[in-house]
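Example (one chain per record):
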Amino acid sequence: MEPITLTTQLSEQDYIKVNFHFVFRKWKGKFMLVLGIFSLMSVLFLYLTDALTEVPWIGLIFGLYLTVGFPVQLYFAAKKAFKTHQRVSETIVYAFEPDRIRITGESFQSTFTWDKVYSLTETKDWVLIWTTPQVANVVPKRDFSPAQLRGFKQLAKAQQGPKNKLNYRNTGAAA
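Predicted structure:
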């Protein structure tokens, strides 16, 4: 089987979106958002039903931070990280081979076998190659041709090591 080679580069918007995905894909991130909405709704309900005579500022500030402040903070932290960590914005070449994955950036090179991949996941916009439960290589799906994406999924499916959470519907690669 021929290696599947593609070249990609994350934009600042890609990096920000993937950071939001990483935070809000887990139950903790979702819980914080729901807790913030619940806090705001509780404050609003109690104030509008005259159960309280003055605004409960602590609950209001807490709810606003969790629903607005934390996402804004995350946005600016991701923006800053993109500007300060040059490797994030480098052009990267991925070569997916039957026995290994080669990743070459402008300032680094990495090769590892498929059994060293922790997990493979797919979102609407990305293929995530997890090397640990906390660290993933982000490959925008826009950089795969349809044939390359099908080939990648077939290659990944044949591997024994990684947890494979790729979407095989409508790709021509049977699950």
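Caption: The beta strands are 4-8, 92-96, 100-104, 109-113, 119-122, 126-130, 136-140, 163-165.
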